[in-house]
Amino acid sequence: MSKIFCGIDWAEGHHDIALVDQDGTQVAKLRISDDSAGFHALTELLTRHGDTAEGPIPVAIETPRGLLVASLRATGRQIYAINPLAAARYRDRGSVSRAKSDAADARVLANILRTDRHAHRPLPDDSEAGQTIAVLARAHQDAIWDRQQMINRLRSHLREYYPAALAAFHGTGKPGLGSPRARVILTAAPTPADAARLTRSQLRALLKRGERPGCGIEAEVERLRTAFRAEYLRQLPQVEQALGHQAVALIRQVDAACLSVTQLAAATEEAFLAHPDADIITSFPGLSVLSGARVLAEIGDDRERFADARAMKAYAGAAPVTRASGRSHVVVARTVKNQRLASAGHMWAFAALRTQAPRAHYDRRRAGGERHTAALRNLFNKLLGCLYHCLRHRALFDPDRAFAPPVDLAA
Predict the structure, then answer these.
(1) Domain residues for 204?
(2) Does the pTM exceed 0.70?
(3) Transposase IS110-like N-terminal domain location, by residue (predicted)?
């Protein structure tokens, strides 16, 4: 057990360090720069106060990411990422005047480890491959969100002057504004006047540059000509031309967003398939390579991170929360959770409904009176427990064991 505890109040340009002993006495403080020289100064300070490879001094800090955290994790010590809201409550324990300083905040973080270390979790000891997948899978998901945001901006812009484009590409049964054919055609004809002048041969050539429609090129050519030549309200000619220039600029941003999604998807798949847990995760119904990578990115590959399956379910938001006080007893869905894992789990459970055993489990929950969202969350809870077991025992998913029929006990 360490006799010295370190707290770091981080900032963009500098970090404040505080070391306290078991009695709460501050034995050292230091302000370091956010560079390699500052990190070496920190390690030297820790070494002077008993830090060794066999007994490293634990560190509390209010962020789980950044170069400083990555460098500290590489030393093999335990890093505790303290929620800033929790740190603020601890600060009120020592002072009611609401006085605040960076050095005092570092001391508060060190004292959190001294008094309540058992109540906080250190950062997981994920492998380098696991951390790589986490970076790529989250970046891919962010890129998808960014792409949709850009498509929404383009749609909003086209509503201002180009209803024919929305009629041609946006809506149920249409390819979508983010599709290659929509981007190619709208770049070539960014205004209603340009679109109305497109000939059949020009449309045919543009469709061959983009994705080929499933209904056939000729049928798509006629559909687009009809949409582009219908009667709509129009802006003034010069205003329409200016809006067309803006549309081309937005389409280029959509092109860049689509390219980012494609490249990040390929990098994520490559990294995930090289991980030893990939075969186990993709053996589950409803998990593809990309969705499996998202799940692994959030649960990590440190098998000591979760004490049991219940802890993993709570982290994912699949387990409910019980609030009991006096005669009041309420069971509600968990709202404090890993939002990325919860989102991936929702899609995982929904996709798993295409297989027999998960579908039967979902139907039983629905027949018992649960709504769709609750039944889907319960299925995610079930699958997540199975995943915990399979990863711990290095076993592939077995539907007969995972969804075994209930045993009727004799009266």
Answers:
(1) 134-270
(2) yes
(3) 6-163
